[in-house]
User: Fold this.
Amino acid sequence: MLIHPNRCIALALALASIGVATPASAHHPGGGGNAEASGPIFTIPASTLDEGQTAVGVMFEYVRLRMLSDQTLVNAAVAGNEGVHDLKTIESTSAVFAYGLTHDLTVSVRLPWVGRTGIREGNAADPLNPIVLDRGDTFGFSDVTFFGQYRFFNDKKTQLEAAILLGVKTPTGVTNRFDNQGQLFDAEFQPGTGAWTG
Assistant:
């Protein structure tokens, strides 16, 4: 069997790029299992509730972050990097209700209460004396999410299933939280997003 030289080069480049890839990290995780450079992926199984069945539950997520130093926050403020903030924890408690419309179609709703604590940032309003502001915490009702899960493949012999999951997050969460200085928090720290999301 002969392999075209261009395919050999492409394969060699692909393998070389995998060898030099480095992990990426971010300080502001979204919560729900992505607090590290790598970690578990949480997913919903393809199984649906039987027709007429209900399920009720409570989900709790807690992420504690390693704090940035005061010097890091001050240096960012002096350099004009307004996007550098510090965050201590991300907390979320959600009530979940699901109902089986048919054997293959389940609908559910998620009602979350979220909080972010220890929000800090550097302030260089006085360039000779930059400081770190303790902006405080935000807590409140977040965006309600509606899901529909349709199982389109169900092989009982092999126990293989496949489903499609569709949903919408509604802008029902609060977006008017203020910090300790009386300033409106940035959108990333508000309990709600203020936007429809499919």
About this structure: Confidence is low (pLDDT under 50) at residues 25-39. The chain is about 15% helix and 40% strand. The chain has one domain: 42-189.
